[in-house]
Amino acid sequence: MLPSPFQFERPSTIADAVRAVGDSGDGMFYAGGTELLLALKMRVIRADRLIDIKGIPGIDCIAVNDMNEIEIGARCTHRRISGDSVIREHVPALASLCAEVANIRVRNVGTIGGNLCFGEPHADPPTMLAALNARLVLEGSKGTREIHADDFIRSEMETVREPDELLRVIVFPRPAGPVTYRRFKHGERPSVNVAMAWSLNAGGSTIRSARVRVGALGSRPQPLTAVEGALRNVAVAEARRVIETALPAALDQLEVNADRHGGADYKRHLAGVLLLRNADEAIIARTSWLK
């Protein structure tokens, strides 16, 4: 099946792209198109105009900024992120994640921004970026605004982004401890995924704070707040035992949708298993982080 007819435009600046897409909802930004073009061909969605943003400079850069934060341009492909030296040095778990997204064709052209904006519940990057306390910078006709990754996805296939807002860059603090990610896949998408980021004290012996996010269970990544609270100011050597104690109550609080990826109880169980594997990996990774 072919998509409905549409106009195709190639602006050279973000401002031109925002003007071209308009606020009526009949235009859509286009970069990799791995999800968008498939949906258009199936006529699940319709666009009167596609705004190609591949020619816009400055939205495919990766760098550490003056605030010691890592910036990833929204037009960066998964392949680009997986091989970037900054990401490999500071967040190797994110490099590994992007190296395993979907399949090689998707990784070569699919972008991190497109992945986030599509709002697919069974995706890898949203869970990791929420654990990293990332902020998403949007540019639209009303100006610039920042949305925390935790708040970006509103529900299944729906985000808080307005139709005329372009996701420009993703920003997060340079990790102050190990970052880990585990998933269980069903086909090319995760049935359950878990990301965890620790902030350690100067000597690396104590967890000052932790962020834990579980994805693919409901419509958006969810925090395990009970586990995060239990890990605060805990010795690294005690982390696994503390997680095991806090885990049952934390899992009970999760919103879990039974779907073709598994039943609710099964997916909760997987989330617990993956979190404990994250903990084991983080304990080992702590040594490398201190070097």
Automatic annotation (TrEMBL):
Q: Which Pfam families match?
A: CO_deh_flav_C, FAD_binding_5
| Keywords attached to this entry | FAD, Flavoprotein, Oxidoreductase
Where would I find the FAD-binding PCMH-type domain in this sequence? 1-177
Highest taxon of source: Bacteria
The record's annotation in InterPro entries points to: CO_DH_flav_C (IPR005107), CO_DH_flav_C_dom_sf (IPR036683), Diverse_Substr_Oxidored (IPR051312), FAD-bd_PCMH (IPR016166), FAD-bd_PCMH-like_sf (IPR036318), FAD-bd_PCMH_sub1 (IPR016167), FAD-bd_PCMH_sub2 (IPR016169), Mopterin_DH_FAD-bd (IPR002346)
> What protein name is recorded for this chain?
FAD binding domain-containing protein
User: Which organism was this protein described from?
Assistant: Bradyrhizobium brasilense
The organism's lineage? Bacteria, Pseudomonadati, Pseudomonadota, Alphaproteobacteria, Hyphomicrobiales
